[in-house]
Specification:
This protein is an all-alpha fold. The chain is 58% helix and 0% strand. The chain has 4 helices and no strands. It has helices at residues 2-7, 17-38, 59-88, 98-126. Helix 2 (17-38) packs across helix 3 and helix 3 packs antiparallel against helix 4. The longest helix is centred in the middle third of the chain and has 30 residues, at 59-88. It is flat, with a radius of gyration of 23 Å.
Length: 149
């Protein structure tokens, strides 16, 4: 991409079919992953997915990419990017105005934090019940009253 900006000529690989497929997959992942974390079809396969319709979505199929992408965006743009901007001043801006760079860094950082927050919520929502103590064997705690003086 930098070569295109410097020379003004497109690179043959950058505008080929493989790059187009890559961009389409990124757009789908960036759209479907956050939606899967907050909608019902992120937990139960919809009926139009014939072999899996009505079954539970494997937990780590949604949770794994969400944690990876959320941590990656937050770490790269939030921690590393902002640290570089603060320590080195303007950093490597490639001729872009400072407001644009800050807007992009903050946007991706907030997106990463949002994905992490949604992933934590999805984790809590889809976790299984604790089966370490069988019910009915005295495992309930006695009710205690708080004394107010």
């Amino acid at each position: 991409m930098i070569d295109y900006l410097v020379t003004g000529r497109p690179l043959p690989v950058a505008l080929g079919w493989s790059f187009s497929v890559f961009v389409v997959l990124l757009i789908l992942a960036g759209t479907l992953l956050p939606l899967a974390l907050v909608h019902r079809w992120g937990r139960i396969w919809p009926r139009w997915v014939m072999p899996f319709a009505g079954r539970n979505v494997p937990r780590w199929l949604v949770l794994g990419p969400a944690l990876f992408v959320g941590a990656g965006l937050t770490g790269y743009f939030g921690v590393a990017g902002m640290t570089e901007m603060v320590l080195l001043g303007q950093g490597n801006r490639v001729g872009a105005p400072l407001w644009r760079i800050l807007m992009e860094m903050l946007g991706y950082t907030v997106w990463g934090l949002g994905l992490l927050l949604a992933a934590i919520s999805y984790h809590a929502l889809t976790r299984s019940e604790c089966r370490s103590i069988p019910p009915g064997d005295g495992s309930t705690l006695p009710v205690t009253r708080r004394h107010t003086d």
